[in-house]
Write a structure and sequence with these properties.
Layout lengths: L5 H7 L3 E3 L6 H5 L12 E4 L3 H13 L4 E4 L15 E4 L6 E4 L4 E5 L4 H8 L4 E2 L10 H6 L7 H4 L6 E7 L5 E4 L5 H7 L8 E8 L1 E2 L2 E9 L4 H14 L4 E9 L14 E9 L6 H11 L4 E2 L2 E4 H5 L11 E9 L4 H10 L9 E6 L21 E9 L5 H15 L20 H5 L3 H11 L14
Length: 456
């Protein structure tokens, strides 16, 4: 295999192989975070799992690094690499639904928009993310926090089976019966173990929800955050919602004179009976006056895609995150000090609830270890102008520095930045040693190391 050439690779895969000098190379190498600029030896737009296996074998035969790109939302830019091979799954976006079994199988390049479009006609869904352009595979492999997590668990808790291309080019199935140790590690362990070319999920009866964003003045932010802390502790599990610092975009339901003003927003999702939604949100409305809102019955996919326009490809990205057990008065004070400084309309801070069904899974049942955390915070710096990189990155760092001492040591791997490699062990807590054991079994040479890496 040492003479496995690029021309031979082109002959052996069904998908396109794009190399420097080829038409479309600059587009093919582009990733979500515009801060990342890499020049791969080849981008292999795989058409199937066999193509992915061939691309892995090509990379290994030529001693090249391997990057795997699914939905392409990796903030650290793990979906590309200089002078290596990018396995691009974007051409594999099919989703097949079995309504009788209440399951759906998504290919490795599918986004949550693809997934929701396939399951919605059946009145079914599973826990996805907050942005519909997020990849199903990447979100799930890191855990999978979303609107439905309190009711149905994380995305990885709903994973039934996965097809995986391993570092030696073999294609295997991972589930509770086959390669069970690999299946355990995939549920939260990120992209450390192979190229996941399809994922099967358990679905739940969710079609239309009651919810949407509400905007509160900054003067009322403390009251809203304190209310949220108490309310979410024992709220019905059909409720998923979170507070966010957000500059008001120029939307028709927001008074024009307040466009561009920072607010404490609250995004709600009630997945129970629609006629109960208004009553569930009444307590929140009673906390403080609502400046603007777009709340009511809507298809679940509509809420899941409502903020896509704020995070188009090509922004600059720098994020930080932690898990939180208790939203203490000191933590709220830190949010009140730094949240209002959100620099641009694309940037934000969210405090996601991860109690309810997430807590009913044992910490060692999957690789996702923080089953006693109640919240997952993310400080998401996202902006269009590279001239603002230094100032906007500093906003994230200052905010994180104020909140991290009041949080757990670890955070959600999907929200980690490229400079967070030193946090990998604490992000997995008591599961880290077991993850290293699985890594040694399936990828002893650390072929899949362009991620929040678990070294063998």
């Amino acid at each position: 295999m040492s003479d496995f050439t690029l021309d031979q690779l082109r002959e052996q895969v069904r998908g396109a192989v794009i190399a420097p000098g080829d038409d479309g190379y600059d587009q093919a190498r582009r990733v979500y975070n515009a801060m990342i600029d890499r020049r791969p030896r080849a981008v292999v737009r795989v058409a199937n799992a066999g193509d992915a296996a061939t691309a892995v074998r090509f990379a290994r035969a030529n001693d090249l690094e391997v990057a795997v790109r699914g939905g392409s939302h990796s903030v650290p830019g793990f979906g590309t690499v200089d002078d290596g091979v990018v396995i691009d799954l974007a051409g594999m976006r099919g989703v097949r639904v079995d309504p009788g079994a209440r399951t759906a199988r998504a290919e490795g390049g599918a986004t949550w928009g693809d997934f929701n479009a396939a399951t919605y006609p059946y009145g079914l869904a599973t826990t996805g993310g907050i942005i519909s352009t997020t990849g199903v595979g990447g979100l799930t492999l890191g855990g999978g926090i979303g609107y439905l997590a309190r009711g149905f668990g994380l995305s990885c808790d709903n994973l039934v089976s996965a097809d995986v291309v391993l570092a030696d080019g073999r294609i295997v199935v991972a589930n509770e019966e086959e390669n069970a140790d690999l299946f355990w590690a995939l549920r939260g362990g990120g992209g450390n173990f192979g190229v996941v070319t399809s994922l099967e999920f358990q679905l739940h009866p969710v079609k239309d929800i009651y919810g949407g964003p509400m905007f509160f003045s900054l003067d009322d932010a403390a009251d809203v955050l304190r209310f949220y802390r108490e309310f979410i502790d024992d709220a019905p599990e059909q409720f998923g919602g979170f507070p966010a610092y957000q500059i008001a975009p120029p939307l028709p339901f927001i008074p024009e004179e307040r466009h561009g003003e920072p607010f404490l927003a609250f995004v709600s999702c009630w997945a129970g009976p629609l006629d109960e939604g208004e009553a569930v949100l009444k307590e929140l409305r009673d906390v403080a006056p609502v400046v603007a809102e777009h709340v009511g019955p809507m298809p679940y996919p509509a809420l899941n895609s409502a903020f896509d326009a704020l995070v188009p490809p090509g922004l600059q990205h720098y994020w930080k995150a932690n898990f939180v057990r208790s939203l203490s008065d000191e933590a709220i004070a830190a949010h009140l000090a730094h949240g209002p400084k959100v620099p641009v309309v694309n940037s934000t801070m969210h405090i996601y609830p991860i109690n309810g069904a997430v807590h009913r899974v044992a910490p060692d049942a999957t690789a996702f270890a923080y089953r006693d955390a109640n919240f997952a915070t993310v400080i998401a710096g996202m902006w269009p102008d590279p001239a603002q990189n230094s100032a906007n990155t500093q906003w994230v760092r200052d905010y994180y520095a104020a909140t991290a001492p009041l949080s757990e040591e670890g955070g959600y791997v999907n929200f980690m930045a490229g400079d967070d490699q030193g946090r990998v062990a604490v992000n997995y807590g008591g599961n880290y040693d077991r993850l290293r054991t699985v890594k040694r079994a399936y990828d002893p040479d650390n072929v899949f190391h362009l991620n929040q890496n678990i070294a063998p």
